[in-house]
Fold:
Amino acid sequence: MLFETHAWVTLNNSVAIYNVYSDELIATIPVGVTPFFPKRTPDGTKVYVPNFGSNTVSVICTNKNHVIATIPVGLAPTAVAIDPTSTTAYVTNSGSGTVSVINIPTDTVVATITVGNGPVDATVARDGSRVYVSNSTDNTVSVINPTTNAVVATIAVGTSPNGLVTSLDNTKLYVVNSGSNNVTVINTATNGLLTTITVGTNPQKIAANPVNPFLYVTNNASNNVSVISTVTNTVIATVAVGLNPLGLDVTGDGTQVWVANNGDSSISIINTATNTISAALPTAFPPRGITIGRVGSALEPGAPIDLTDPYQLEEVSESVCIIVEKVYASCQQRECFPTFLVNLPIGAGPFTFVSMTFANGIIVPGSIAITPIPSRPNFSRVQFTIQIPYTLTLRDASGAIVVLTGNLPDILKDIVLYFPPTRPEFDLNLRIETRSEVLVSPIFTATTTQLAIGSFVITKVTGLVQLLVPAFGFCPEPPLCEEFQTLELNPCLTFVDTTLTPFPSDFFPPQLDDSACFK
Structure:
């Protein structure tokens, strides 16, 4: 199944959506007032946007790119954390000193947890066992048991704690301290301090690489991003970005970091292999937060595939050479039989209708005539006859089932089809598929029943080949068949077309002043 990878960026009362691997702006969605730091659900179906200025959370459906719910929460919500099962979201209300607990399936607040003063960010342990909340005013982190929605511990950290994240192995919690320009590292088993890592000036948010043991910290006043190794707990690189970076996120394959630069209305994209800037995108308004991930819906059949996006092909496990009957050309038509009559058995009536089923149509043997069209290379006039078998099930006057079988009237086809040029030994086949249905209730008389029947007919030119193919779903709907045009021309077609035959200028007698002598 194919997916796209998007980035949701909060701007001025809106969210901009980008295709991560083409850097294309896909849509801009209005949300609440002053949206802050959004979060995508792990299953990719929704994005939760905290609206700092309207005390709400906007819920975006990622499949349709529109807001499907607006949830009232506490005062000045700033950030969202979501559990690994995509069932619960936690919203930090910086003006209320609380965390709103949202049930994701119903998009309703089911609990409110009192934490420290000025909660600004939250993260959920990778096993879902704990929720960590940074309290910027109290210089602490609240530890919540998500089963009971109770605070079970409070951890002292640096000055003005902000962004926080757990390591890939879930053994360490990293807390960004905006006021002390460092990152506190906490042992998640004991809630004890392990070390402190110095970073840039006024650090804000932190994101973990989901593939490699690295963390990325935005330094708002230094205009750069610190890259931390979780193995050594040291800064291994510093990447210059735009002005006043705030939010950031890492792509699922770990190859890119997207950074929201609030000071110059731009997005910096970091190549994690080289820790250098690979691209910079302008934004319509100063961006604040970013969340990145897969869209939780498959691409439509026939849609273009972005081969630069590793997620779009990640579920293709191997390349396979298969022998398959390839369709070189196909077209569709519809046939209708408004008054198809079936004779009824004598003496068993009256009858009631039970069902009518149809087998796939067949091409009558010996009825195919293929005539190349000289003026159109590789196109031929194709004539053949189709028969569609039916089974009509009725119930007689005694309640017994009566089954009648037969064929619908012969369908005579005269169409134009493409036949690819081939070597003499290669066999091309003409195949049909049909689907028939009863259109209205049957009409019974003493001796017959009258039915209206419609049939869809798809005609194909096929050949057996070897192909190297992944599976992309069902084939799209084929184009309409081209009717064969006979050489006989209808002169009335030209006459009734006003563009080809305009109204005659001499239809009325000329006026005296229209004469040449009076001009």
Remarks:
- The mean pLDDT is 90.
